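Sample entry (460 residues):
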Amino acid sequence: MLATLDLAPAAEEEMLALESIFPDTLHLYSNNDGSLLLSPDLGPQQPPLVIQCEDPLSIAKLTSLPPASLFFRLPPGYPSAPTIDEAMPELKVECAWATADQVNMMLAAATMAAFQAVTDRSVALFEAHAAATAVLDDVVGSLPSPWPVPAPVFDVLIRHNREQTRATLQRSIYSCMICLETKPGKDAVAVPGCAHVFCRQCLHDFFVVLIDENMPKSVVCPHPDCVRTSRTSSKADHDPPPPPPQVGVEGDSDMQSVLAHHPLPPDFVDKVVGPDRTEKWKQQLLRRQYLSDPAIVWCPQPKCDGPARGHPRGHRYQKLATCLVCDFSFCAVCLRAWHGSAAPCSFRDVNTLLKLMLAARQIEDPEERDLAIQALYLKYTRALLDRLVRDHDAEMASKEWVAKFTQKCPRCLVAVDRYSGCSHMQCSRCDAHFCYVCGVELDAGDPYLHFRVAGATCRV
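Predicted structure, serialized as tokens:
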């Protein structure tokens, strides 16, 4: 590597020393050019660095930061040229995440240290590297928490942190919280954000079951103590919790909004379960979000069932909805092809709607029950279904009261209610005589014989 450079003996010795000290971070090029990486100190004893991106809103924790680079070009005769200007190396600092002022501070510190070394007729790169690194550590120590960064920088930081976490994991051993076995890091996968580690196969099987069982919001880190999991498994969340995504009228923008608020990025899910199941998972998430949107109804076309949005209340075309998938225009109330705002709606079979609603109310799991009822509300309108259920409940209550407090005429089966008097009843519809206690029809010639026979249990 050094043979390609035209270096003075002192400079060549410096390069050999730097290569020994920084074997992985010193890069030498031709024409006396090179660079040294400046690695910020985010050691294991320090808490993770929290970063925040405003658009779209995202929060993540970092255990490492990308290094800055100190580029140098050595002049001929360095470091013992006749004058300081001729011996001074050209320096430049680049950092993907630092501000321009912070980069200038690192460069100023490196330049000052190099100037002092050259003034003393000594090699300067080690001193320049140390000075720039000290400023870099001060910059890292002064970062706020959370640290707001623009979206491009956020992506760079997340990508670097993921690569470093993976590299560190491959050099270690780990215990999987799913199979509870200890394995080498090369077989592991770290969940982005929380960095909890699992067997790749275990996490694959776990996610596949959730996706196949239509539980997309549960596709999160399975570690029982994971804070990021709380976004989907409980009411608690980070401080402050992000607002729920507002879905729009276009499927692509809806998908981006929903995925931005899920703890796991889709590219990670894709690496674990593959593209086909990832697409299925994304569609499940989007459909769940549509189910929670009261403005969404569902396309009545048998081969579609896609989401559609009606117009605001009070709008001239309030009942008009157009499917986002097949572009079918229909009435959002009766679900028939669009019949105009003035024409009244009609329903084919209200009994079928009632059966669907009653079946949804029988679901044991509260969350699944609420989702099923909400889906029916969105599809058939809440007013209609509540009226059908109200009428049904009233009818059931009436039937229960009739069964409990009345007796049927044994001849015409009309229900008879007794407010007072004896147990001998005469039907006002068919004139049949019967016992109010047991319902047996009595002899019209002697109706009280039923109460006088030996062993009779009915009393007048």
